[in-house]
Amino acid sequence: MQRQFEIELDEIKHAILTMAGLVEKTLVDVSKAVAAGDPAVADGVIAMDDEIDQYEVTIDRLATEFIARHQPTATDLRFVIVAIKLGPELERIADNAVNIAERVVDMDPSRASRPIKQLLRMLGLAQAMVTDSIAAYVARDAAAAREIIRRDDEVDSLYWEVFRELLHVMVDHPDQISHAIDLILMARFVERIADQATNISEEVVYLVEARPIRHVRDDKVQD
């Protein structure tokens, strides 16, 4: 019985890591699509979304069946609860990558500008946060998770920098309003990806320390 228990836990973990790998690939590819203004690469990101969605369904099924079958407690129960929460967070990250890719498909690739460089910097930071949050989950490293949470402020700061600069672009160059709006939307989607990496990191802290820190002041994060 214990052997079956461990097999099913490993199956849940494998599904999460496989889904996370696909999500990380969407972020790598969408960064390439933005940098090159390449709609073909962007289309590939969009095409991956259905497979990622199915992994969310699979993780939810495996986790709920595990709870019903084994009635886990303590750390094992937290592990399964976190698995159920990570699926939707990863799916939303992929959705935001798709949202960015859709803007790339619609945009005029000839309108390169400084905000695109800042957007790529944001994407790099957010992508690293996602990768590191998954690594923290695998290692059950609450200290690393807290460090990732702190990094969200830098992405937020860049978002407002891009937003303000694009407002000036729209005022000074009315012919670029549509392009600027696309960039603002893309920056907002990247900011959300960083938020979702933060959410994953908060769940890692819960998994390790058995206390939720969402919507709660956490002095170890604030320091």
What can you tell me about this protein's structure?
This protein is mainly alpha-helical. It has a single domain, classed as Up-down Bundle (Methane Monooxygenase Hydroxylase, Chain G, domain 1). The protein is 87% helix and 0% strand. It has helices at 2-36, 39-47, 49-70, 74-106, 114-139, 142-172, 177-209, 219-222. Helix 1 (2-36) runs antiparallel to helix 2. The longest helix is centred in the first third of the chain and has 35 residues, at 2-36. The chain is elongated. The chain starts with a helix and ends with a helix.
What labels describe this entry?
single chain, 223 residues, mainly alpha, Methane Monooxygenase Hydroxylase, Chain G, domain 1, 0% strand, elongated
Which whole number gives the mean pLDDT? Answer: 93
CATH superfamily: Phosphate transport system protein phou homolog 2, domain 2
Overall, the morphology is elongated
Helix content: over 70%
Count of domains: 1
Q: Would you identify the CATH architecture? A: Up-down Bundle
Describe the structure concisely.
With 223 residues, the protein is an all-alpha fold. Helix content is 87%, strand content 0%.
Write the layout of secondary structure elements.
Elements: H1 2-36, H2 39-47, H3 49-70, H4 74-106, H5 114-139, H6 142-172, H7 177-209, H8 219-222
Helix pairs in contact: 1-2, 1-3, 1-4, 1-5, 2-4, 3-4, 4-7, 5-6, 5-7, 6-7
